[in-house]
Amino acid sequence: MPVTLRMAFRNIFEHKSKSLIIGTLLAVGALILVLGNSFIDTSEAGIKRTFTDNYTGDVFISGISEDGDVSLFGVTSPGGLSSTPTIPDYEKVLSMVRESPLTSKATGMATGFALVSKEENNEAPNQDSQSDTSNMAILFLFGIDATEYWNVFNSTEITAGKLLEPGQTGLVVSDAHLATISKKLGKEVKIGDKILIQGISSAGFRLRELPIVGTYHPKSESAMPEQMAFVDIDTLRVMAGMTVGANEAIDLKASDTAMLNTENTDALFGDDLLEAAPQKSGFDEAKIKAQLADTTARVRANTADTGAWQFIVVRTKKASDASALIKYLNDSFQKEGIHAVAGNWQKAAGPYSQSVDVVRTVFTIALIILAIVAILIIMNTFVISVIERTGEIGTMRAIGADKGFIRKLFNAEAAMLSLGFSTIGAVLATLVAAVLRSLKIAAGNTFFEILFGGKYLSLIVTPANFITAIVIMLVVGYLANLYPVSVALKIQPVKAMQNE
Amino acid sequence: MAIIEIHDVKKNYPLGKVEVQAVKGVSFLIEKGDFISIAGPSGSGKTTILNMIGLIDKPTAGEVIIDGKATSGLSDKELTRFRHEVLGFIFQSFNLIPVLNVWENIEFPLLLGKTRITKEEKNSWIDWLMAEVGLTEWKTHKPNELSGGQRQRVAIARALVTKPQIVLADEPTANLDSATGEQIIELMKKINRELETTFIFSTHDAKIVEIADHIIRLRDGTVTENRRRGEDVAASATTVEE
């Protein structure tokens, strides 16, 4: 063993109290790092598994909105009022996806939100009713094509009733949420019962009465929100304003827009306006009836645009193929001038995946603060050690040790302490994780389900967590040792003569 | 032949706002193979002169020439190499490395330089030195398990392990009882004869001073006596003035 390592090893034992102070900090640092990173990784893996297995597949294709990023939950925009764009040239995009050798399965889908409430509340929410949500249940609707969807996602099992069948209208809700709906409505809702749901979208509020076709339960213990419900795509299209009349424009005459063009807002509420309004002589009842009898526009506004899809979700043959397929699709969209974009599950999960990023960022900031404090304490302890060994360092310099030898000696000590104690910390963290896993701590609510990446806290320490923590603590040890080493290097050989 | 030449060496130390002259223009020569004592009371400048000869401190003025080489212009790296190859040190407080045992302490200087010797050569040389200083049975002991005299013997062996031309000893007997101190000086003298290594030691013990072949006395940073054993004091005073 080189003399520097031998001396460094023995010095650690020679100065036990200082080694223990430094070592404890390094071990605790490694323990926090391993557990924290394991927690975040488990959470991220859980969310990833939940989303890729249940909602987003490996590749997620959407239209492009100028107002913000498009995810399963709509457009992330200020105020959240933007409508989710549909995929232009849907059939062409779908065939591009299916022709790729990397693709296993793909299907179109759309999403939306709806409320279920007691009948007396089934009117467009005003300010008061919006604040009273105690008897309302929220549904996050997945509009699906029943012929394809269940082939792509096989992660739910039917607990009662059945899955939606092709062409069937209705809802499949989670068994947990059916109980919530029953509670909110104040009556037991069973399979086959119809419930009135109120769709909320940028197109307005639409009411639909839909039968409960079945209830499901996620096959795996994943963080799947119970509010998620499957609905036939045409119902969702109507509720989300994806109708054939949605984009039609009505030509208005100059007299119809007279009031809109006024620049004097006071005049809108004065008598002048009434005087200026066109006065038609006579009331033609037949004409009014004829106008009301024409329901074409209303029918068109309630007829689903059967070619409209917000998303295409794709399962690749191997999960690792996702990046290559995303690149291929985005290149193809650009080449073909298609206003669509492909992304991974994180793009699809939007705010859900960002929640992990937020936790990771907060954890990282906390760690940086802890690391700075630890570095200062370790540095101070190393400096004391150097000062106490001034005579020894001076002696070594006097009898022929150059500065490089002194640097190596102190770096070896720091490296051994960092390596040894951070390994102890990482091993302890692995044991703590195993104990926590065996305790099966339940999440209890959706927030913790997302954080835990499942129904239970299931920390798994990966080799990457273990090694990363040790490497980071080695860097902490090295940084904390920079100043003490510079102090040691300034010690002159003449200090050997002052050794008492 | 002079192995060390000291020419008009001065050393000033700052002490608060004033400068203290520790050595005031000292000149002398030391012959190769000499056993020299630098004597004088506390504060006379003995240790300062030894530090400058040992290249662990630099003179404020003047020149220290060792083995024909002027040392004032040498870099830190060159000085380190010079100390390692040419000089050996014995300290008043022994200055052994506490985490190394006797054998390892003696071996330590050999691990620092660029010169490499075979393991067999190294082991036999260290074993010879250990036998010479009478510590063969103590080779695996740590410094804190040894007496003061034993520690100084280890220091002597360590100073000799690189086969230096010059060994500097700063008050090597100061922390020892008189009997042990005499034994240490006798040991140094024996090695001086056997290996022809130049030994320079500082002391204020009159009894030990007289064992030296060459005595340099200092007072208040100046040489008051510089004589070889057998020369009379009057002659030496003349030499100093010359």
UniProtKB/TrEMBL annotation, chain A:
Compartments where found: Cell membrane
Residue stretches spanning the membrane: 20-40, 362-387, 414-436, 456-480
Alphabetically ordered keywords of this record: Cell membrane, Membrane, Transmembrane, Transmembrane helix
Claim: Ribosomal protein is one of the keywords in the record: no
Keyword check for Membrane: yes
GO cellular component: plasma membrane protein complex
InterPro entries for this protein: ABC3_permease_C (IPR003838), Lipoprotein-release_system (IPR051447), MacB_PCD (IPR025857)
Domain ABC3 transporter permease C-terminal positions: 365-493
MacB-like periplasmic core domain ranges (all copies): 21-254
Family designation: Belongs to the ABC-4 integral membrane protein family. LolC/E subfamily.
Protein name: ABC3 transporter permease protein domain-containing protein
Organism: uncultured spirochete
TrEMBL record, chain B:
SUPFAM superfamilies for the chain: P-loop containing nucleoside triphosphate hydrolases
InterPro entries: AAA+_ATPase, ABC_transporter-like_ATP-bd, ABC_transporter-like_CS, ABC_transpr_LolD-like, MacB-like_ATP-bd, P-loop_NTPase
Keyword terms, alphabetized: ATP-binding, Nucleotide-binding, Transport
Residue ranges occupied by any ABC transporter domain in the UniProt entry: 4-242
Gene Ontology MF term list: ATP binding; ATP hydrolysis activity; transmembrane transporter activity
GO CC terms in record: membrane protein complex; plasma membrane
Top-level taxonomic group: Bacteria
Signal peptide: none
Family: Belongs to the ABC transporter superfamily. Macrolide exporter (TC 3.A.1.122) family.
Name of this protein: ABC transporter domain-containing protein
Organism: uncultured spirochete
